[in-house]
Amino acid sequence: MSFHVNEKGFYGNFGGAYIPEMLYPNVEELRQNYLKITADKSFQKEFHELLKDYVGRPTPLYFAERLSKEYNTKIYLKREDLCHTGAHKVNNTIGQILLAKRLGKTRIIAETGAGQHGVATATVCALMGLQCIVYMGEIDIKRQAPNVARMKMLGAEVRPATSGSKTLKDATNEAIRDWINNPIDTYYIIGSVVGPHPYPDMVARFQSVISEEIKAQLLEKEGQENPDYVIACVGGGSNAAGTFYHFLDEKEVNIIAVEAAGKGIDSGESAATSALGKIGIIHGSKTLLMQSPDGQITEPYSISAGLDYPGVGPMHAHLFETKRAEFISITDDEAMNWGIKMSQTEGIIPAIESAHAFAVLDKKKFKTADIVVINLSGRGDKDLNTYIDYFKL
User: Fold this and answer.
1) How many C-beta atoms surround the C-beta of residue 301 within 10 A?
2) CATH code reported for the domain at 11-50+89-202
3) Is residue 321 among the annotated active site residues?
4) Within a 10 A sphere around the Cβ of 336, how many other Cβ atoms?
5) Is residue 111 annotated as a catalytic residue, yes or no?
6) Would you call 101 a catalytic residue per the annotation?
7) Can you tell me the distance from the alpha carbon of 133 to that of 171, in angstroms, rounded to the nearest whole number?
8) Where is the Tryptophan synthase beta chain-like PALP domain (predicted)?
9) Per-residue pLDDT tens for 160-218?
10) Which helix (DSSP H) or strand (DSSP E) does residue 170 occupy?
């Protein structure tokens, strides 16, 4: 069984490109060119030079000594929080901006939830001297004010999405509308492994540098390339796709995807797509989607803006359906407490998204000899206001 995309853009039952006719030329242009362009030697050279000298890769694989001692297992943290801009998102935006330039596009649009992808897009647009417009839900603009300020400093225009739940889903809708209206000069940098084919595959490929580095770093530290477990949080799921990518076909590696249960899976305020989702179509791909009995998309909820999405990328839907990955849901309270715990145990303030991944340590028992790699996908600066409000700091 394959866990990678097929030539039609599907992972098993999930994926594809369900798009309005107006978008067909844009998506088709991308589909026909992305593999050819990204495989080109000059593209690879520029991409890897920027990852090294601009982003600061490879990011460390850090042995968390105190945490390992407490949980009696070997815990490594993949430090994506140390990337330029503070999260993994920039790996993908650098890849896509180089692609956009080679396709001759001059205007870049993006959607963002937590703001990290918006910042990463604004960053690469400033780097390349291209116009940048970021769509962001009105609610997210309020709860992620520092990231909004960063985007503006970087020269981006931030446009609020005022419909629906005023969060990530709605920002994505607005970005797609913009793309339909500006098909010639505009390139849409999607921030996760969602959207019509080829986006889920393309984003996963750009993010796969994470698992590529984990293999090389584990070989150096442990004498073996494969861990026993890889763990990452999943909203749309780009950091998880990158963390899992080179382990998908390695049967001995256990994959754990961590979703946001919000106030509890059955509370009506949750974003646990694997538990609550049914097959549906969102933003151009067929995947697992939280929806009402009559097929209307239901509003997700999570204290973390980056996990507040009603669907999951088609790769992850396939990993769930085939049981290749174990999906675990973590509540707001569990994640927030882990934010403090990580801060005080390892001296690292994690993004609330990443804090969800750490909470798995309380849910699963690992063996002493197990090598457990957890992707620390982003740092917590952007979430300080949420931490302050929650803990009355």
Assistant:
1) 20
2) 3.40.50.1100
3) no
4) 21
5) yes
6) no
7) 11
8) 56-378
9) 999 988 888 889 899 999 999 998 999 999 999 999 999 999 999 999 999 999 999 99
10) helix 168-181
